[in-house]
Structure to design on (214 residues):
């Protein structure tokens, strides 16, 4: 069955869809069969894929439709894909409970700022309840839009050291303009010339896959 990776954060503007789509493209580039269920109200990933397919460019990622799946439980039983990404709404809803219950991993992108940390801590009980219901779920945090000259991300890592079941990933994604503009020229970051951005997304993808296959 597919590994289900849910990308979630109750706070908007953290790059959730950017991370989910970038990782989906990375695994597809590596030869995996990848699908995305876009449950985000902004439908960013849906727009990305459909706009390129409308232009005649085939995108090697299957865009799933909730009405055709039937239920999250049915999605979890799918044997058609190697990985399925679920992009979630930037709010706490009861919908998240059903998504967390079928997830192999919850990936939380977070910007290194005090407001983003405080927002995450306000939703931490919901996350821990999900971890209790689904004890096999791996819970990870990726620092996104990092500023290399800042030490805030170090404080983030220190703050979560005591959390045995929530891991701050070693890989980080820097605050790069390429993530907001490449979609105008190509459907995937990996067709651009930005070696640093591609290396960061690749390192994130490799670290996630290692955790899923331990």
């Amino acid at each position: 069955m597919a590994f289900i990776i849910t990308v979630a954060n109750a706070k908007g503007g953290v790059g959730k869809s950017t991370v989910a789509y970038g990782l989906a493209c990375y695994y597809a580039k590596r030869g995996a069969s990848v699908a995305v269920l876009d449950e985000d109200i902004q439908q960013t990933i849906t727009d990305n894929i459909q706009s390129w397919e409308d232009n005649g460019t085939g995108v090697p990622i299957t865009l799933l439709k909730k009405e055709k799946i039937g239920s999250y439980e049915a999605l979890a039983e799918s044997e058609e894909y190697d990985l399925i990404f679920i992009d979630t709404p930037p709010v706490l809803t009861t919908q998240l409970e059903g998504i967390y219950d079928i997830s192999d991993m919850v990936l939380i992108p977070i910007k290194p700022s005090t407001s983003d940390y405080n927002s995450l801590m306000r939703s931490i009980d919901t996350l821990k309840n999900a971890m209790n219901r689904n004890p096999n779920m791996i819970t990870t945090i990726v620092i996104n839009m990092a500023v290399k000259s800042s030490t805030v991300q170090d404080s983030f890592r220190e703050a979560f050291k005591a959390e045995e079941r929530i891991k701050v990933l070693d890989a980080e994604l820097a605050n790069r303009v390429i993530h907001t503009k490449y979609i105008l020229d190509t459907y995937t970051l990996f067709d651009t010339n930005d070696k640093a951005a591609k290396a960061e997304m690749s390192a994130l993808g490799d670290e996630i896959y290692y955790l899923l296959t331990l």
User: Anything to note?
Assistant: The CA atoms of residues 17 and 87 lie 6 Å apart. The mean pLDDT is 93.
